[in-house]
Design a protein that fits this description.
Blueprint (H helix, E strand, L loop, with lengths): L7 H11 L3 H8 L7 H14 L2 H8 L12 H6 L8 H18 L12 H11 L4 H25 L1
Helix pairs in contact: 1-2, 1-8, 3-8, 4-8, 6-7
């Protein structure tokens, strides 16, 4: 596995691109060399669930807003359907993102891979009805999905 050959600093940087929570990255560094993809993904989920809400918020801060300007190649690919939507859906996403951030204190986190912009807007509107305690758990699970997809991309690169 190519990841096992990286220097500690290169591995830390690569893992940080998958999930921006420092505590998660530090825990993940302890599993290398890793046996296989299944072991890597199982550890990723286990350590993510061991993280605190503050760690989750740190990871969320590393994401661009859905429908906003993206800052990474992976995020741009994950949100590619947004580029092919109508101006009214883009405006609704921008408005919804603002309302979400005001209500919950962090950006809307959704595993965007394979989802059209209209579906993400529907999910955003639905999740705006949640309580903060329920929503952070949903956002945490969405981050786990994103991290797993990014780890698979990292393995494939």
């Amino acid at each position: 596995m190519k990841l096992n050959e990286l220097s500690l600093s290169a591995l830390e940087e690569a893992l940080s691109k998958c999930c921006g929570a420092t505590a998660w990255v530090k825990k993940m560094l302890t599993i290398f060399p890793v046996k296989d993809e299944d072991s890597l993904l199982a550890a990723a989920t286990r350590y993510w669930h061991e993280c605190s809400p503050a760690d989750w918020l740190e990871a969320f801060d590393h994401h661009p807003k859905i429908g906003g300007q993206t800052t990474s190649k992976w995020a741009a690919q994950e949100q590619s359907s947004v580029a092919h939507t109508t101006p009214s859906v883009l405006q609704a996403l921008a408005t919804g993102n603002q309302l979400y951030q005001e209500k919950f204190g962090y950006i809307f986190i959704v595993c965007a891979t394979g989802k059209p912009a209209e579906e993400m807007l529907s999910l955003l509107n639905e999740r705006l009805t949640h309580t903060p305690s329920a929503e952070i758990k949903i956002a945490m699970e969405e981050q786990d999905k994103i991290t797993r997809i990014r780890l698979k991309k990292l393995l494939a690169s």
